[in-house]
Amino acid sequence: MNKTLLFCSLIFFFACSEETQEIEEIPMETFRDEVKATPVKVGVSQKKSFDYLINASGKIEAENEVMSIVERSGYLIDLKVEEGQQVKEGQIIALLDRTDSQLEWDKAQVGLRTASAEYRSLKIVSTVETTFSEDLDRNARDEFWKASSGLLAAEIAVREAENNLNKTEVKAPITGAIADLKLKKGSLVNAGDEICLVLSTGLLEMKVKVLESDIGYVKKGHKAEIYPVTGASESISGTVISINPKVDENGLVQVTLKLSKGGSLLPGMNARAVIRAPQNNNLVVPKEAVVYRSGRPVVFTIDNNEAIWNYIEVGKDNGREIEVLDGLEADQTVIVSNNVQLGHQASVEITTE
């Protein structure tokens, strides 16, 4: 009985040993083949022109804004505009009482006629002039008669009277919109009083502050998109027209953008600008291709249907693409989806879905 049990135990022991040996001899590749490949989308690393995007904020300003002022004293008898109204250059926006100015002009006209009569009289009497030396020409004699008759002074007085009469009409200095209306009809005004501000709302510009570390990328003529802070999705295009050659105490440089149109933007409105600074012949990858492991940027390439881990050094980021300074070469296939949890040499399958 004991021999039988011993024999059975030996048979069981050797059978288990053989099964264990067979399991240990299964190659690791068999398990890798059983793991389902991760579906991934891919892109390509490229040498290309790269738009570095510089974000800045500032205020919208009118390209031209001129204060309209009163040039003579008097009563403001009519105000022909209201705030927000569009006016053209030279359009009358206010009228002053012209009674005194008209009287001055009438007096000047009388003086001119009197002086003209005296001038003609002198000219007739001096037909045979003996007081002039023979070397004086006709023009010199004519100027002498005009001065002697008071005609020159009378002509100047008429021009002054006409100028004062014209000042009773206050005209728009530029084409634009009326803002900051300060006076009311019937007011007694003095020379130099401000009536309103005229803004060229159709010609707008924006002054933004750019970090000194980014200003080297910005050049005159670079394009920009301007977005109002009101949240409007449609942007308005702009162009860099000037760069202040001075860095302020906060390490910022003022850049002026000229807007292509006004759109919904108004002077004084806050807005955000995105300046496009082209960078030539840079190696870039789609932004989705870059993941971070332990704080370091990584891009996965593909080799024989396996994901290959590549540490890279990144440069500028424009929101769609990232510049690669080191770690990749041009025209490599890079993984742009399902790459957050990928491991080195993980099995992958390229898909377009």
Task: Describe what this molecule looks like in 3D.
This is RND transporter. One of its GO terms (molecular function) is efflux transmembrane transporter activity. Residues 73-199 form the Multidrug resistance protein MdtA-like barrel-sandwich hybrid domain. It contains five helices and 23 strands. By secondary structure, it is an alpha+beta fold. The chain has four domains: 31-51 and 282-350, conserved putative lor/sdh protein from methanococcus maripaludis s2 fold, CATH 2.40.420; 54-63 and 200-278, Elongation Factor Tu (Ef-tu), domain 3, CATH 2.40.30.170; 65-96 and 168-199, RNA polymerase II/Efflux pump adaptor protein, barrel-sandwich hybrid domain (OB fold (Dihydrolipoamide Acetyltransferase, E2P), Beta Barrel), CATH 2.40.50.100; 98-167. A six-stranded antiparallel β-barrel has the order 3-12-15-14-13-16. A four-stranded antiparallel β-sheet has the order 4-11-9-6, with no helix packed on it. The model is unreliable at 16-26 (pLDDT under 50).
Helix content: 10-25%
Number of strands: 23
- Rg, nearest Å: 43 Å
Describe the biggest sheet? Answer: 6 strands, antiparallel, barrel
Query: Strand-residue fraction?
Result: 35-45%
What oligomerization state is this entry in? Answer: single chain
CATH topology of the largest domain: conserved putative lor/sdh protein from methanococcus maripaludis s2 fold
Following the backbone from N to C, one meets helices and strands in this order, namely HHEEEEEEEHHHEEEEEEEEEEEEEEEE
> Counting H and I runs of at least 4 residues, what is the number of helices?
5
> If you average the pLDDT, what whole number results?
85
Q: In terms of per-residue confidence, which ranges show pLDDT below 50 for 5 or more consecutive residues?
A: 16-26
Outline type:
elongated
Distance N to C terminus: 70 Å
CATH class of the largest domain: Mainly Beta
* Secondary structure category: alpha+beta
- The number of distinct structural domains comes to 4
- CATH architectural grouping of the largest domain: Beta Barrel
Strand order of the largest sheet: 3-12-15-14-13-16
